Amino acid sequence: MGRSLFRFFAVVSLSVLLASCGEQATNEPLSHEDARELKTSFVDSNKYLLAALGNPSNLTTIGGQALPSSVAALVQASNLNPQDAQCGVNVSPTNPPDQDQDGIPAQASFTLDCQETAGSFNFRLRLQDKDDRNPKSGYVLQTDQYELTLYPGTPSEVRIKLDLDLDLTQKNPGYDIGYNFYFEVYKQGKTYSQRHNYTLSYTPDSDENPFLGGTLNYSGNLEYRIPNRYYRLTIDAANLRYAQSCRVSFVGGRVVLRDSRGNQLAIVYNSCNNITATYNGQAL
């Protein structure tokens, strides 16, 4: 059975199971405390999308292996220093073809297993050029595993799981980005997660260097799960400014999340790592 078909049946089976268990999103309003935690989780997750949009023409060496920028940036987003960690790196095929020399292989798989004093990191990813004869054609990036553990065995232990699939397709003008994202964080004995799946429109600042910076817009739904509660919120992102020089946040724009009662969490990006947030007009 093909991988895509297997995933389809797995998702359908999970949906049927959840429906039979009667799991539904709560109609209760998003509490001020939950809004604050969601703001933190959402902002922390931004760096993974920004990493996946990394300038593909650059290569970064980790564990003695030159990696495409979008792959290396996802490793660096773990907060472990891959240059100091003991990392086993595997690329298959060993020298993947790259006919248009844009830093995106025609097709390749990447595996990293890193150990450091602060924690461990396990990473499996596939990267494929949409058209290896056109450096602006876009690419597909799929994570098969992304597991990070920080400060294991201590009260500060944090565990992160990530599932990120990105499908970037050239349009005229700009790009459409299919974005499937699951982000789970365990900290202080509790698990929080968010899931969203939508298409972003991306307008580059420069046609010649489309991945150095640009503007993203999207809307859709976001599932947010905390212990004993599941929220389903709408999300609208307007004029999110991306600059490759900032790896931790967007540098402009606004995101608004609304619960089933119309309560509103607004996140405003003022500049790199300069973010303000309000819930129903009150600062968080």
UniProtKB/TrEMBL annotation:
Residues making up the signal peptide according to the UniProt record: 1-25
Q: Enumerate the UniProt keywords alphabetically.
A: Signal
Superkingdom per UniProt: Bacteria
This chain belongs to which protein, by name? Lipoprotein
Q: Which organism is it from?
A: Meiothermus luteus
